[in-house]
Structures
1.
Amino acid sequence: MASASKRKHQAMYDDFVKRKDMKREGYASASLHTFPTNGGNTRYTVPISTGVGGGGGCVGGIATLEGGVGGGSGGGVTKFDRHDPRQVLISEAIAKMIVRDLQPVSIVENQGFRELLQLLEPRYTPEAQHYIQSQLLPAYAYQAQLATRQSLASAHALTLSLDLWKGFTGATSGYLGVTCHFLTSDWQMRSALLACLPLTGGSSGNRVLSDFDEVCHSHGISGRAYRVVAEPFSATTTVKPCCLPGFHVSPPLANGLQEDAEEGLDNCKTLKEGMRYGHGDCGEERDWEELWEKGLGGIRVDCFSRCLEQCIREGLRSCPQLSSTLAKAACFYTYITSAVPPEKLSQVFDSPGSIMGGPGNNPPAARDWTAQLKVLRRLLDSMEFLEELSGPGELALGVSEKALLRELTDTLEPFTEAWDMVHGDRQTDLQTDRHVSISLALPCVLGLRKHLSETSTPRCPSLLAGLSQAVESRLATILDDPLYITATTLDPQFKLTWSSTPDWHRQVLIEELSKHSRAPNTIDPNTDLHPQSQTPPNLVPSPVSPLSRPCKLFSFIKQRPTTQAKSLEQELAVYLREEPTDEEALHYWRRKSIDFPLLAQVAKRAFTIPACGTAVENIFMTAEHSLRPERGRILPKNLETLIYLKANFRLLWTHS
């Protein structure tokens, strides 16, 4: 069959062989001494052992320079030497694939995978699973740790985030992720996962705090964190992403998406059963909160985006009649996406992400309440057009049902706007250092409260009441918190334009600024002080030009007026007199740090606190979705290493 195909398409086959030979010649011209072995990062080298692999006749065998074959088909082909840059490049590409997709390392032993490698590059010797798992991946992890420690040593300000992924059975009950958000000397915000540690079945709050302290100590940041973002309810249960109850889209012939819908249904059932406040057991949550308050002190803060999601969850649960109507809307949506031609649907859902479950779309989007709400809004806006295309039927929504869904979308629209401002494009930002600080939180809460006070929901009053109650209980405390007042006011796009009582907020601001803008004291590096009491060491003063001394020679030059250092109140007054600007906050303070040195000292700390979740949180959710036992996927033995490398992907492979 293969020879017949070759004769039938001889020209195409010859062209393929020609291009492949050209590619090999290009590889052969590479320099063995200057080739980067780490995705373009030449700061570190990967310690690769030469003793891994089987004999010359095995698939994983090591070739010799005399032309020994590493096994498999392709007899007579000279294999790459172990240190050949082409061998290293392919091995690194395989490791990157495993990390990026959280694939089990055992994939390199699969026969189909090895046949593909043999077809693409017969001279490559496939690496053994043991080598990748015990040497290559740990070597990359070591590089990431070394680079992170070097960056943190010179960081001007930093905040830590704690993420817990629970819900497993057996020896490992979950994982602890510790992420650091830090500001470099040139005002660039960076985030790095410091550690991903497995939790044993008996892990308690004290054990988690002990592991957290050990991670901080090993990275040299004990006592340096300005704030720690951690929530007690994330420690008591694994809270799945919020979704619209009943709105589960399952396109035909998409088994994976069908499972997604079933998972969403289970999620809603779980929320209804015994989860009074959107978490697990309330008593256990209070125990964790007391423990963390005792262990972390007053530096613990809640994650704004998670609190916002909890408000949505509680609001939706307060209106049970929405579920049946949303389920009918989902059925109608599924019907039209299968019955209406794609060119017609593109007039309504004009962006790829607007069609959930369509070709090329990411399935997890169907489980995100914001994505579902946007699809529902498009559906309602074009309902007449879609009904005309699909024709009359039992799936068509009635007038009252359309009005109820319109009420839902209008009520939740500002919540969607707040969520999008905090999160942005998740898929685009997964491999970037996008950082949104808590300066957005206070204006968002004010806007949500104003919206809810002016909104009327005659068809579903319980929805409005549930949302209002959730916002007051979970988010209203932000409005009086000096930390959030400081962060929002130091954001040049807001300043005090949001305040109805600027004089009172100005006084609160001065008191808060005075706590953190004092001249730094010398700190013994071996002393672990309270996090708020430690500051980076004093900078070496700039040398003074000898020409600045007074002398007769320059007596004709007018004497410069003496510049007195401004007080904190003076800096704040000048800063607030300036008009707000849309300039990015960190860029603004980098430019203004000379004019407002005291304010800049506080700004660089406040803006390290993130308003949304971390990269490892998204990775936890992805892993939970793809590694479920019912899908036949088992947890890789080195899952914590894969998660660590995936979260720090850009740190290792910045040119990927």
2.
Amino acid sequence: MDSQESKRLACKVIVAIPYATPVVGVVFKPMVRVLGITSFQPPQHDITFSWHLYREQITCSVHHLKLATIQCMTCVALDMPVRESYFCSNQCFLDMWPQHKACHCRATESVSKGSNNCYSLRGRLRRSGFWADSGIGSVSGESETLVEREGKTWIKVGSSETYVPSMNDFGLCLMFESFAIDRSYGFPISEITSIMTDPVIIPPHPCPRRMIKIQHLKEYRNIVFESQSSNADTFSVLSYNILSDIYAYWSAHSKCPRWALAWEYRRENLLHEIIGYDADIICLQEVQSDHFENFFKPKLAKRGYSVTYKKKAMQLYTANRYISDGCATFFRHDRFKEITKYELEFDKTALSVIERLEPGKRAQGQIRLKKGNIALVILLERVENGSSLGAFQPRICVANTHIHANPDFPDVKLYQVASLVNGLEKIAQSQIPLLICGDMNSLPGSDPHKFLVTGRIYPVSSQERTDPLGICRLLKLQHSIPLVSAYSSLLHSGRVNKDEEKKMNQETKEPLFTNLFGGYPATLDYIFHTGRTIWRLKVFWSFWTLKLFKQALCRQPYPPPPQDPWHQPLPQS
């Protein structure tokens, strides 16, 4: 026993919550760490968790001297005065139901004139801390575990590491408790650590994107989105930087509530929006590796998508593990099959550039050029219901990339874009339609943007920071791919009405912004396409997503795709 006693309180439990406001329907997971007190490593242990709800004592709306034990959740849903929603017992509520039902009807009529379907408004009840979400007279009979903390009585509602608040928890505070127990003997070896949240809230309904339909050809004016996918040669593309959770820190997004930055909240909204676009090809950037495997890949597979994924070369250490993000390209497997793919790591292609720097600058070149960014290039061929249509079927090459973000490295941005395009040039020589989708982190009119759309650029322009190591003079800064921006090509067509034109930059012919970071709008995201092999362009756009309809008319035999267009030394300029 002496050895057991010596282990008591041998460690302490540290608990932190990602945000203070739990949200109905969103997994709430505190961060728990166990630290040793007498030694760096704590003894072998398990961790015990418990969740509790607290509800202040409120009196009955009928019998004012009695405490309320039941709340009508229909009153809450109808935004009725909360005082009228409390009752002291189940029988009290049943006795008052005829009058109370009439209150529901009046509240409904004030919201929707002419609606008299008040009998559908059942009185949904909740009691104490275990609330029943059912009809009149249904109250949970489960025994409740009560604990006293600082003069307040809390009701135990869970014993796992996570908790998902329900509608019945709305307006109530949660308390999370945790302590460590000895794995061999089962006695506590730490004090109980507890943390309390703010009241549970109901999340606002996400505002739908205000999609602006820009018609390209007169005959397309009455075509709805769904009909596009039925055309044998027409397909839709979506490009979206979804903001990896490892970059969603509040200091960078201080105008956003902390709970709204939580991945458990954002992921469902993102999935709902992505699925809603019903695109044939989906290019996502900043897809966190674990979120790809356990969320996006299985969720979109159920929707009929195949996928290829490429992680960035660099990883971040967070939450006791290394994690990275990358690019994911999904495509409907009943419309396309993968012919080949190329995974481009800009760090590897940078080696040939670094070797040609002056010897005294090569160490700096290693640091400056190696940023971990990647590009994923996939060659797709059209199929019908998942089966090949025969010889010489249309093909499309889709490049998905995320270029380095730091504005102090314009030479690195230009190097990455030039490296990508120089390799794609070999594929484009086969007359295969080409799409370049992604977050270029480059403003319209910047050197990377000019290089893409004009095919030639001189080393870093005077408007940007200089090229301190002379990297740009070592790059091949010209290409022959007839690339056009999806947005600017429409504005140049003259088929954009005046209202839509106001949402475009008249000088650059690109949108006013595709990104809002720190309150500053900027255009950083693009879809470029080859102008001669993809035509009949129609764009649906909002300020955070790019969406295309394109028709490819390339049905000639294709030469074998190049083995690897990027793993070759860059030619001298």
3.
Amino acid sequence: MNPSPIHVVKLNLYKYSLPLPLLRFIFIPKLPFSSSSLSLSSSSSSLQTLDQSQTNSISSSLFHLLPQTQNPNNIVNLICSNLKQHNSNLALLQTEVKALLPHLGTQEVSRVLLRCQSDSSTALSFFNWVKNDLGLRPSTQNYCIVVHTLAWSRKFSQAMKFLCELVELVKDDLPSEDVFKNLVLCTEDCNWDPVVFDMLVKAYLRMGRVREGLISFRKMLRVGFVPTVIASNCLLNGLLKLNCIDRCWEVYEEMERFGIAPNLYTFNILTHVLCKDGDTGKVNKFLEKMEEEGFDPDIVTYNTLISSYCRKGRLDDAFYLYKIMYRRGVVPDLVSYTALMNGLCKEGRVREAHQLFHRMVHRGLNPDIVTYNTLIHGYCKEGKMQESRSLLHGMIWNGISPDSFTCWVLVEGYGKEGKLLSALNLVVELQRFRVSISQDIYCYLIAALCQENRPFAAKNLLERMTRDGHRPELEIYNELIKSFCHCDCIAEAIRLKTEMVDKEIKPNLVTYGAVIDCLSGLGRSLEGESLVGEMVASGMLPDLAICRALFNGYCRENDIDKAQSLLSFFAKEFQIHDTESFNALIRITGGKGDITRSLEIQDMMLKMGLLPNPLTCKYVIDGLWKSRRVDSASLVK
């Protein structure tokens, strides 16, 4: 007869290199009862990964003269006796052994836990008391003993809690510790259940550490312990989520090699692996193998395959499976219909998807938010907003509240059709139904209104957005300010800029650029230049666009002196050398016949390291020619 899994582990422990720690203590008495000890010597796999308590257990020939309640060597006996007599009254225990608590170390904790293993409640209370009330940090060995004790007593949820805690502790503070090895070591001294090793794999997966879970799974196989199919499925699912397709097949092969019988859940996970791998051609063979193992594909299997076929655009195959389901007595559910509708909508066959929707309802299935969103999105992509709106009313009538995706696709659909008013009316209508409007939708509508040069309507929407509890961001303020500036509503733009500062939103280069450009265009370049000083004071430097905006403003105001000094100032203070603006200045002065000034500006360019380009030369020559014509005309007179 084959040995049970427990016996298999016991037989193979000797194949697994697990040296036990060797503890040696040498004590030299001092006056009258102090002692010193040599440090603990242990192998690299020692369970003592955490510091011992403030002092190690003391052994001395003189301690037998002390009363039992004061003898450090008697601390384990005292604790166990008190726990038994006082039914885990830990407050009383702490009072009675208070003088000996400095001598309570992780080794003593392990000895107490081992003596309490037949009473898991007492062991658990003592462990929590040490960890929480005394503030001592348990060792890996302490954790392993309490986990074994709880699992042996069938308290699996509590055992899992401490396993997860231990896994996290080892990850953060003791990366060299091997939890699996320590659990195996503890089986020599305490009651244990093989399920603990399954739980370790699950604990790693629960903590998102799939790699460590895979390593523990393989260690179990190496020492001769066969994991359950449940632990194997958890591992497969974890690997699938990380897209470790090859690892999934390796684990499945190991399951077959070690006789771990798969179940339906195993095959459903592997079906998903096949679909994710893109190798849907192997699906039929895999389904045949699944049936050979005695498992008929269920609704999960079919839905996985249908969804995969629809994503790949293989709708004929998807509908073939849909028909096969009925023949095999598997009734399609909401997931099946929604996947098929989604596939149809992606190919622009929204009418067919809607017909399938009606067929589903006729067969007694109630559509959910995903089903409605699939159809609404399909109609919106085709610009059929009336049909989308009808579906929206239908879902609300059926008691399904639209989510953020529903609202977004409808608003975006109206936006693409250029029907902003309809989109705004939709928002108002949705709010009447107490549907929350997301900040993204508000920002989309505000930006769209700004692009249509309707900044006042956009500002009203901004105020509504703020009332709804959303906090506008810098980008949306910039859109509004640019729109107001484009409409020459500079007072509103400046008011919004002030509002930003009041709300602790710092204006950026885009904000200042829009306002300065507008001021310069309105003949208020001096006010624009004062904003440059504000920018610099806030730690922001102007750019070339701001320089040109102010320069063009002064030129329009016919203040050539100010325009020239501005170019000189920006070149000196901000290293902004703008050949185009210098050329414009030469063109203006040359056009007025002031060739002397044009040449002075050209010399200024050369001193700044700017080389005149062909346009510079052209404007100088034009100026010289015009100056000559003016002089000739004056001579004729």
4.
Amino acid sequence: MVKTGFDPATYRLNLHLHSLISSGRLAQARALFDRMAPHRSNAFSLNRMLSGYARFGQIAAAHSLFLSSPLRLRDAVTWTVMMGALAAAPGRTTDAVSLFRDMLREGVAPDRVAVSTVLNVPATSGTTASLHPFAVKLGLLRSSVVVCNTLLDAYCKHGLLSAGRRVFQETSHMDAITYNAIIMGCSKEGLHGEVLDLFADMRRAGLGATQFTFSRVLTVATGIGDLRLGRQVHALVARSISACNVFVNNSLLDLYSKCDCLGEMEKLFDEMPERDNVSYNVMIAGYAWSRCAGTVLRLFREMQLLGFDRQDLPYATLLSVAGSLPHVGIGKQIHAQLVILGLSSEDLVGNALIDMYSKCGMLDAANANFANKKDKTGVSWTAMITGHAQNGQQEEALQLFCDMRRVGLSPDRATFSIIIKASSSLAMIGLGRQLHSYLIRSGHISSVFSGSALLDMYAKCGCLDEALQTFDEMPERNSIPWNAVISAYAHYGQAKNAIKMFEGRSSQEVVISVLMKLAGGCPSLVDQLNMDAFLEQARSYDKALSNPHRNAQTRELLHPLPVIRAHEVDEWSGSQEYMTLSRKMFQ
């Protein structure tokens, strides 16, 4: 023992110190540590005391002890423990990076754990880039996959994907964490194809996918609306015992919800051995989107009965359901719970309250909730503007828009779309042109929603040429602008131009109301329009909407466009008006 320097007394004191810290008796532990100094204290006891302070959140005490400790007791572990404690403390991340620089100045060589710790600090991208050559110089990128993974993860978290790719390509020994980091980076940048390629490479390398891998791939499948891919991943998850948990199951629920596969979503939910508040929130959001109000309310009550934290309940979704029904009674009950919990002024639920009361026609209540909001965001103003516009108060909507600009908030494309519609309802072409100019300056002119609203505004204000010019200048078009320009031609009696536009459209969706207007305005063109074929296409269109297996790309068909559903078309096809048009066709 003499030759090795082992001191039984110091050993027993360190064991006692460890016992006190483990049980949370930090004051007694510190008293013991102070009694050990200066003869029996060592790097181990210092590191243990620092770890104890860090574990129980006493960062100031840890930092004070670190600064007062002799330099001879500070080894690489001491510096690493203190860096980790500062990195975990709110607002102390820069101190953690500064401490790493102090460590280098003191001549203490950092090991792979120290470098990994400082790379995990949520600092700036410049800090990560400055540490990269240091890790190369120490040879840690060749010898430690942990450092490689941490550096790769840091680059991806800061959005420096090109630098992350270089680290990935230069890594000689890759594991599942390496692939997860680069997959996460590509997923954040929306590179869905690259994510799938990396997933395939990972499987070919024989590396087992983890819960994080499956979650990211499922996010990609959900984003691109690829239900087939999602089902294939589901099958892989079912065969992977370690990855089959509530985290991955919630991603699967989200996939089925957004692909409108309510049957598969419900089946998975019923089979889940563990459910959390996210599971219920995803289910409620899926049923709310499909307007299954009864099921939404049942799941909400189930969450309450199971004792979930009331602040985690999906109040905003429930308010959205109440507004879409509309059912102000449900909305008021939710509002009462929010007041009791003190959440009614929070941004998300506050905006949902404004939207709910507006849709229920109670603008006074919407105005009161808007006035009570402490922080009025752009979404809050847009909700108020939309509420007034939808309830026929166009001038009040325009005044709110001016007030929004006056307080320094910038409108988004949703705000512009609704305010342009308000100006078209009032036939205020001057205001519409001003909004057009402001759209160009703000960079929202490329939005298909803003462009469609402008097109509709010009058409309703009698400016067909400007409407057509707006249509020609739109960089992106979906069924909405096509239908708007066809309707504009039909409204002004230019049936032939409307048919030419209809035949040249890129979308195959049919807005029956536009065709009816066109046929009614020029009965001699009924044979060219082939109304029976249009009616059959509308029935197929309605059938596609009711199909539970449709994917996320058909979700836009549920947008409240002026589409007459198939059952309404069938009713119209048996009317006297349609029979009159049919007789004229054969005269």
